[in-house]
Amino acid sequence: xxxxGTAPGATHSALGASAERREGRLKVTGGARYAAEHxxxxxxxxxxxxxxxxxxxxxxxxxxxxxxxxxxLAVLTxxxxxxxxxxxxxxxxxxxxxxxxxxxxxxALVVAETLEAARxxxxxxxxxxxxxxxxxxxxxxxxxxxxxxTVNGDFPGRREIGGPDGTPxxxxxxVAYEVTPLHNHxxxxxxxTAHWDQDRLTVYTSSQGSTTVRDTLATMFETSAEHITxxxxxxxxxxxSKGTPRPDVVLAVMAARATxxxxxVSLPRRFLPAVVGHRAPTLHRVRLGAGRDGRLVSLxxxxxxxxxxxxxxxxxxxxxxxxxxAAPHHFTTHHVVRLDVPSPSWMRxxxxxxxxxALESAMDELASELGMDPVELRAVNDPxxxxxxxxxxxxxxxxxCLREGARRFGWSGRDPRPGTRAxxxxxxxxxxxxxxxxxxxxxxxxxxxxxPDGTFVVxxxxxxxxxGARTVLAQVAADALGVTLERVRTEVGCTTLPAAPxxxxxxxxxxxxxxxxxxxxxxxxxxxxxxxxxxxDGLTARADTEGRAxxxxxxxxxxxxxxxxxxxxDTVTGEVRVRRLLGVYAxxxxxxxxxxxxxxxxxxxxxxxxALTETSTMDxxxxxxxxxxxxxxxxxxxxxxxxxxxxxxDESDPHLNPMGSKGIGEIGIVGTxxxxxxxxxxxxxVRFRELPLTPDKVLRGLGG
Length: 704
What we know:
- This protein has 16 helices and 29 strands.
- The chain is of the alpha+beta class.
- A 7-stranded mixed beta sheet has the order 3-5-1-14-11-12-13, sandwiched between helices. The chain has a 6-stranded mixed beta sheet with strand order 9-17-16-15-10-29.
- α11 packs parallel to α12 (508-529) and α13 crosses α15.
- The longest helix is centred in the C-terminal third of the chain and has 22 residues, at 508-529.
């Protein structure tokens, strides 16, 4: 074979290496183009007009003043916007009728020559409404609450094994927790650029899955999917909010059709909370019963949350309790209320992040009642099989993570008594929490090509949302081919490539990598048949994992982890500062040490924000979130984040995929908030059961 390096099939492994991200230089030099940065001749800009009432109907739209402004091309409303077919997701049915289901719902779109002209004209559009009474307040006793049959992920809304009520137990804990609404806020706001060329449509969009966007647009605009090309080459974060198509892409396609021009819709950040999803608030009740030895006899987790009138989306916050601990009596249920609120949606570790905060906080409270070390309490309740399904675990090394984390953190030197360590006005405490996330895998296709110059190209419509997917997939390919990483190039992020599932559920690498591995393994076999050298026009091989990647497994497959935190609580100001944060994970084979550590630390930072700074307030009178931008919604800044540590244990699991990998993008957030909250209790002796731990709550708890 031409070129240098190891011949295909030779012993060589690129997996596990700390390879740098291949697109890193493009990003830091400005060469990576995002959805709003694709100039087209004659491209126009569009600016949406959000509703200013919490519920009602549009009775009139006066666009005359806007249309008279220089550079304005069109004002689209429900009266003149292109008609679309009804999609499965009704949050995309914008400008189709006069109804206003919540404040911030788009009621018009201004298209102009420049962004500035579109923004100014949008402010000149006058909309009249027939206002209706609204309800945006979630309570556990809301009269309209109901128990859904299923929740997100198609899990049963209610599960009962035995029944915890009335079960004899030496020690009981019955506690309530609250997690306020949270917002994704990716660095790149949601944006799309659309262009019609007769009956062919090209879209550049900031999405975690361009295949889904293409198929949704084909349905809504009643055209063939083969006539649509969707490009999501570089995506500046998503955290779930870009997991499904959002109104920006529908509006861009509508405007392009109406004006005959390429059109870009880039949503202002302050519009995002109302139209691209958020983590719904969750109210938790956790009841635990245990013997004096700490072994659980009962576990109950009840969750109340809300959804919108536009679509049902139920945060599956009680589901993780079905996985974590052995108890003969398990009870988990969800209740949901339809309110006049923006539609909630996916946000990093949906279900697990709020659910494990409540469960792991309750476990800490139980440890205090028992006078037992919280690490040991978790260890004695480690199940041999998944409690809910009864399946054996494909691998479960939670206790190993707890032990290794305790060793690294210096847990054995901890004085278990709360409120005993002080530095002047600062109270110091430490806490621990466990984490879990399911192994999710979807079918995917991929193509691998061997070129006469000795290089290889892997093609797959994966989406790199900043996680390093291009790099890791090249490592998977190099490993399967037995060649050096430098000889492999990846092409991702476009629907002209072999179809692949979205980047979500920590399933991307496992799903895409399986198909890439198989395509490259087949290519290596074909090369061997050609004597190791491809013909002049190259050689290709394809793979499709349908029927295998989505096959029912005989095993319960999950990643696990342990989080340890040290905090300082200022008794004068109420400020909580994290001094140390450690995460130890068991997540299968780590495919790239550098990008894996980045993912773990990113998740932990997001968990720190959930614990201390991030919160959103639904104004009951106004019917909208009070915190709508990064000046009021406080994500952690550098000063909030200490030198985080992320480690993992070597875990071999043959029941996953050819790489032996589990998802790592979301487990980092799962236990972090509980570990910080437990540390705050250890520091002060006060239980804080509502996130985030802002100074006002801390001072109230301290009696200040």
